[in-house]
Backbone:
């Protein structure tokens, strides 16, 4: 049988906030069983170790450390024995979200300036090392700050907060009212794509998330329909449109899992404000949106010359805006010269790169840029390290989808019968493409990693 200690060890014993030097900002010790030298042990295992050897979870002399980094702070959960690591990691991510919401950003100064509020949040969000209330909107009913109307709760607010924390819909407090009822939905995807030097796609995986911003009154019931392949197969329906097969689907707690497992219906009462409804994975082969060839025309002890060709591979009627192509250069390069048939090019020595800016890049177009740099008489010993640095592309494409996932419907039902406006936005706010270099003298393209939002 499982001992009492094994049960107790599934949670966290303490939460510690450290600055970038490893100094303790604040510490909340829930159980008093992990000692006082936590920061020194964490520093030896994380701060004094090269980044490539870091792990988000490690054990040291009977203690398990689980940590995340956000801006210039480390948030560390320490537990004795063998804790539930996934639960703790999820809690730390929620803690970052809550603190960033409360303090309008999260860094070491925001914790120091608001340490009383931080302690109050830690006490409400975790009890004896176990996560409790993690929804920002519910916590804001308990803990008020200046940005959240600093005042003592009246009896009505206290009753609402208590009800939200204890009822079956703990993520949504009752009594919410909006003059205009709206809900926004965004689909954000990250695509990892491996291509050979001749452009053949070797592997392709899409990691996606459905994000929502709910501004609805009361306790609305929502139903979301996607072009889910499994759903159409279960109901023996056919469609002329494209179907997608989602794998590893993870839902927000508000989604009724039993209903989804039964008939693939995504039904839920949403939290108020912004939240992630679901994440998923797709194994769908897609064509790279951009293809970049970087040729070294000359690479001698005194100079280096590039020819860069960038080609868009999406439909002609689509446009990529604010395109930035970041090309690595040797660390000791100097005397830059650029010639491009579109856009502007700048040398950024602090990044050891040159950046090609293109305001608008039409589909099925190809543009060329030439660059030349000189070298000092004494060569930098790390001159060739640029060959292993990836080319990076940043861009945005409005009204464009890649994976083919589509929202078929978003139904909103509330007992008061109000009319609500659902907004589904297909947009690519920020995208990143990395061309992982497998360098030869005249060809620099091997691996392409593409991250997109739609």
Residues:
């Amino acid at each position: 049988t499982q001992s009492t200690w094994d049960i107790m060890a599934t949670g966290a014993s303490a939460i510690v906030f450290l600055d970038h030097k490893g100094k303790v900002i604040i510490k909340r010790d829930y159980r008093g069983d992990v000692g006082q030298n936590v920061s020194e042990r964490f520093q030896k295992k994380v701060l004094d170790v090269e980044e490539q050897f870091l792990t988000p979870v490690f054990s040291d002399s009977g203690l398990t450390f689980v940590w995340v980094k956000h801006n210039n702070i480390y948030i560390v959960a320490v537990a004795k024995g063998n804790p539930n690591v996934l639960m703790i990691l999820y809690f730390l991510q929620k803690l970052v979200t809550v603190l960033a919401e409360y303090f309008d950003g999260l860094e070491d100064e925001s914790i120091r300036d608001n340490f009383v509020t931080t302690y109050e949040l830690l006490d409400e969000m975790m009890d004896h090392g176990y996560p409790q209330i993690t929804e920002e909107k519910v916590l804001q009913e308990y803990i008020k700050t200046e940005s959240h109307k600093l005042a003592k709760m009246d009896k009505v607010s206290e009753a609402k907060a208590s009800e939200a924390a204890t009822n079956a819909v703990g993520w949504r407090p009752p009594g919410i009212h909006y003059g205009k009822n709206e809900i926004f939905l965004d689909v954000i995807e990250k695509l990892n794509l491996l291509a050979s030097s001749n452009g053949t796609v070797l592997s392709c995986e899409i990691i996606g998330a459905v994000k929502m911003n709910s501004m609805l009154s009361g306790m609305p019931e929502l139903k979301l329909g996607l072009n889910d392949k499994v759903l159409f197969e279960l109901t023996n329906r056919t469609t002329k449109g494209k179907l997608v097969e989602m794998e590893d689907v993870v839902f927000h707690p508000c989604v009724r899992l039993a209903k989804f497992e039964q008939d693939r219906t995504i039904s839920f009462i949403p939290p108020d404000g912004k939240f992630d409804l679901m994440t998923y994975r797709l194994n769908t082969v897609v064509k790279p949106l951009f293809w970049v060839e970087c040729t070294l025309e000359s690479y001698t002890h005194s100079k280096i010359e590039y020819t860069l060709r960038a080609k868009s591979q999406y439909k002609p009627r689509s446009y990529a805006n604010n395109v930035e192509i970041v090309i690595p250069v040797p660390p000791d390069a100097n005397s830059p010269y650029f010639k491009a048939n579109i856009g502007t090019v700048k040398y950024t020595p602090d990044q050891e790169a040159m950046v090609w800016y293109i305001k608008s890049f039409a589909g099925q177009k190809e543009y060329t840029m030439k660059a030349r740099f000189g070298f000092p008489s004494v060569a930098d010993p790390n001159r060739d390290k640029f060959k292993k640095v990836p080319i990076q592309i940043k861009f945005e494409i409005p009204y464009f989808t890649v994976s083919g996932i589509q929202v078929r419907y978003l139904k909103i039902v509330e007992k008061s019968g109000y009319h609500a406006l659902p907004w589904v936005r297909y947009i690519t706010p920020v995208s990143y493409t990395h061309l992982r270099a497998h360098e030869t003298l005249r060809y620099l393209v091997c691996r392409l990693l593409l991250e997109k939002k739609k």
Observations:
- The CA atoms of residues 164 and 173 lie 5 Å apart.
- Residues 1-8, 147-161, 428-454 have pLDDT under 50 and may be disordered.
- The chain is about 20% helix and 40% strand.
